[in-house]
Amino acid sequence: MINNNTKLNKGDYNTMDYGNNNNNEIKVNTYLPSMFGETAMLSMQYSYNKFSHTLFMNLSPVLAVTGDGKKQYNTNVKVMTSISTVKAVSLLKEIRKYGDNKEFSISVPMKNTLLCINRKINGDNVQCALSVYTRVGNEIDMSKSATYVFNNSDIIVDFSIENSTGVTISSPSEYDLFICMLEQLTKMPGSEHPSKVNKTVSDKFSKPSSSSNSYTMGSIDNEVPF
């Protein structure tokens, strides 16, 4: 515990061991809805550990189309990337600059991949896509890259039940869902804090006392970070 009278010597700043405390090795993966496109399948999951919050993305290309038109995806071929909370904030900031009615193409460089989000507009039709390019040095290996084109959904606005009339518009629903997933990723660190507080207090109350059969809250005061 550091207080105002504590004197730190050189090297004291690096004494915390992040890698060997097995009690803190908590990893949580949450699978998100998969998306199925004309050329690829997009699978995603949130991943949490004590170092980071991450959104993983995996693209699997179409392998074949059955006689009834159903697509089969080659899940043995995976073009993968991930985006951290910090980079998701930057990506969302740039996307918002374009509003809802402008085209854009924005790339986020990762260590071995390049994540690209683009939007094209043709009249009332909006088409959005996500591409993952594998990087080899300064070059792009197109044989290990893939693109997912987000599906749109038709909705009817100004609908009249009496006349069964309305205007059908195409909405970029899958793309909007993907943006919601990115936004949720940026909120995860803060949103987890209340539940962690509740769990800590609950664990303290349910901790058996070593001297009796009663339960004790324990020494929470000694665990504050200041």
Q: Could you please describe the fold and organization of this structure?
A:
- The chain is α+β, with helices and mostly antiparallel strands.
- Helix content is 20%, strand content 42%.
- The chain has one domain (26-185): Transcriptional Co-activator pc4, Chain A (Roll).
- Strands 1, 2, 3, 4, 5 and 6 form a six-stranded antiparallel sheet that branches. A four-stranded antiparallel sheet has the order 7-8-9-10, with helices on one face. A two-stranded antiparallel sheet has the order 11-12.
- Strand 11 (153-160) and strand 12 (165-171) form a beta hairpin.
- Helix 1 (85-96) packs antiparallel against helix 2 (173-205).
- The longest helix is centred in the last third of the chain and has 33 residues, at 173-205.
Under CATH, the homologous superfamily reads Transcriptional Coactivator Pc4, Chain A
Low-confidence stretches: 1-21, 212-226
What is the architecture at the second tier of CATH? Answer: Roll
Elements, N to C (H/E): EEEEEEHEEEEEEHEE
> What is the fold named in CATH at topology level?
Transcriptional Co-activator pc4, Chain A
CATH class: Mainly Beta
Relative helix content? 10-25%
| Total helical elements | 2
- Give the total of domains: 1
Topology overview:
Elements: E1 28-31, E2 35-36, E3 40-48, E4 53-65, E5 71-73, E6 79-84, H1 85-96, E7 104-109, E8 113-122, E9 125-136, E10 139-149, E11 153-160, E12 165-171, H2 173-205, E13 207-208, E14 215-216
